[in-house]
Amino acid sequence: MTYDYAKDIFDELKNYEGKATFEGSETGIDYFVLLPKEELDDFSLAGFLEQYTANTSFEVEGNHSLAYTIIGINATLPDYTDDADYLAKLTVW
Questions:
Q1: Does 27 score more than 60 pLDDT?
Q2: How far is the first Cα of the chain from the last one, in angstroms, to the nearest whole number?
Q3: Using the 8-state DSSP alphabet, how is residue 25 labeled?
Q4: What distance lies between CA 35 and its chain's CA centroid?
Q5: Residue 28 is inside which H or E element, if any?
Q6: CA distance to 6, 36, 62, 63, 86, per residue, from 46 (Å)
Q7: How far is the C-alpha of 44 from the C-alpha of 41, rounded, in Å?
Q8: Quick one: pLDDT at residue 22?
Q9: Quick check: 93 pLDDT over 50?
Q10: Cα–Cα distance between 30 and 8 in angstroms, integer?
Q11: Distance (Å, rounded) from C-alpha 72 to C-alpha 31?
């Protein structure tokens, strides 16, 4: 998705940090990350968590003309979702 569209969704998703029903089950999404989609190529959550330490949603800077996406991270488990379509749906429910 375009940066502007992804940023709008990201700004809304920040309201969903913490407990949420995700794909039919209760889960904790500690924070959301807005990042260039190319960052998900060969994505490793362990490597990502080593590189970025956060306790709230944040943006990974990149070229805004590239495609962007959003991931939700549960740092406690650790687990993540990169289902940007589902995350976008959360903002309209």
A1: yes
A2: 20
A3: E
A4: 8
A5: strand 25-29
A6: 24, 18, 21, 24, 23
A7: 9
A8: 60
A9: no
A10: 19
A11: 6
